[in-house]
Amino acid sequence: MSDSEMGMASGDLTRRFFLERLGRMGGTAMLLAGMDALGFGIGSALAAPPKLSGKPKKNKVVILGAGNAGLASAYELTQAGYAVTVIEARSFPGGRAQTARKGFSLTELGGVTQNCDFDDGLYINHGPWRIPYHHHSTLHYTRKFGVPLELFNNDNDASFLYFDKGKGPLAGKPIRKREVVADMLGYSSEILAKLSQQGALDSRMGAEDKEKFLEFLVEFGALSKKDLSYTGTPGRGFVVDPGAGTDPGPGKPSTPYKLDELLGSGLFHMVHGISEWDQQRTMFQPVQGMEQIPKAIARHLPEGMIRFNTEVQRMRQTPKGVTIDVLRDGQAETISADWCICTIPLSVLKGIDNGLSPAFQAAMAKCAYAPVGKIGLQMKRRFWEEDHSIYGGHVFCDNPDINNIALPSTGWQGQKGVLLGYYNFGPNAAKVSAKSPADRAAMAVDYGQKIFPAYRESYETSFSVAWHRVKYNLGGWGMWSDEARATAYPVLTEPDGRIYLAGEHLSYIGGWQAGAFESAWQQVERLHARAMKG
Ligand SMILES: Cc1cc2nc3c(=O)[nH]c(=O)nc-3n(C[C@H](O)[C@H](O)[C@H](O)COP(=O)(O)OP(=O)(O)OC[C@H]3O[C@@H](n4cnc5c(N)ncnc54)[C@H](O)[C@@H]3O)c2cc1C
Predict the structure, then answer these.
(1) Is 513 in the pocket of ligand 1 (CB under 6 A)?
(2) Is 442 exposed, middle or buried (0-12, 13-18, 19+ CB in 10 A)?
(3) CA distances from 109 to 106, 128, 368, 466 (A)
(4) pLDDT (mean) for 468-490
(5) In this predicted model, what pLDDT tens digit does every residue of 154-193 receive, in sequence order?
(6) 28, pLDDT greater than 70
(7) Strand 149-151 to strand 331-337: parallel, antiparallel, or no bridges (unpaired)?
(8) Spacing, Cα 70 to ligand 1 middle (Å)
(9) Less CB within 10 Å around the terminal CB: N or C of the chain?
(10) Which residue has the higher pLDDT, 27 or 366?
(11) What is the C-alpha separation between 513 and 152, in angstroms, rounded?
């Protein structure tokens, strides 16, 4: 599928993928334009939950789902004096915010059961894995509940890029990102600087600005002040690193790749002036896995408030209240409340006898869910650190079955590690998910072997997920076309009688935990304003 087809392929199953590709192809400007156009991804706006003051007249709330949206709703409402019950189909809190470690088990729809058998202490965040510094709502809960954070290395100059679909001598070889960035910036600056000297920019700027602009290009592109040429820079690395004495002494500088080689290889797609807004450093991860956030919130809820292993079967409401029919271990039960906050993903909610209005049914039908896959590969040796000095970050590839291999941002210089072997989206995620877990791992290992000589011999075991085949999610995240964002989305942000929907799908920070938290905060505030009136 071409990029434009991907962008248009609506139902828009591939929106995030499209944006990621757009960012690679056109850099930040194009990406931000695309994000604006698609109504996606502008940073987290709320820094703190709403203040819910006063005593509500009707205070019984049933919350469907104990993912981050459900947990935040439960916590904030409990603090405000509501009597809350949370219904959760799974046996643990967090929804998508899961961490696979020894003993974690997952059965995809129509698939086999995978029992994670990573060594003790090793894990993969097969759902959310990183938190941008501007996701204030997510960071509100980590701060509030003392969830320790560590840096997530989201960009590594030393990491490899591996593109095998391009032409020329750089295709099909692991190339250090720093080399590609240095050379592309160098050549671009050189060309611009020389054009400027030839008068090409005279109509754009006066003599003084031209001089300053030249100064900028010389610094930016590491150009020779003498003749404005780019002949390399220590920043792209050395053939022999500098050291002591006279040998290696100053080391041996490296030689830039040729511009036509870089263009032919396609590697230039990975050079961005500034990172995408939601990919910027500083990026965090919770120590010991993303599940630590929902677990911490759940610990601060009254014992027994969350009813685990309890599946919502049917939802009904009258002008006075709501009733939710649930099934727990084969036992039917009906739960009554004054209000309901439903955080079940729309992909799942559509298939439940939900009793919602025709307007809601029509609006829900307009939200598509992204096929998304990830695999964790346990390696018996941290060869990426030992052999290549790559500490965290991503190896970006031009094979969309893989997209990126991510090296762990924890356990530095330990013996073993779990790396992310692929992160695929859209049709590629669907294709790869049709394989058995063993075949997915074999595919990932075969590919990684092209980049790292020690990949296959180091591989021990894997754990993979295809979110579109996970029963209580049926997709990675919700996606709205422009048309649906304008028409259907606003319908669902309003209550349907006494039922309020919340979750990442009802935010413009879709596919991020901050979207779930902030959507919850918004709906809780609205519910409270109404409950105060009776
Ligand atoms: C692969 C992947 C990578 C991601 N990366 C990041 C990232 O790096 N950073 C980030 O911040 N976010 C990331 N996200 C997004 C983040 O995981 C979500 O936005 C967020 O966790 C959604 O929370 P939620 O409460 O809206 O939904 P969920 O977490 O899905 O919660 C919904 C809950 O409803 C329950 N439920 C479903 N059906 C029923 C039923 N019938 N009865 C009872 N309960 C039911 C589910 O079990 C679940 O607990 C990623 C997501 C994926 C899939």
Answers:
(1) yes
(2) middle
(3) 10, 21, 18, 10
(4) 98
(5) 999 999 999 999 999 999 999 999 999 999 999 999 999 9
(6) no
(7) unpaired
(8) 10
(9) C
(10) 366
(11) 16
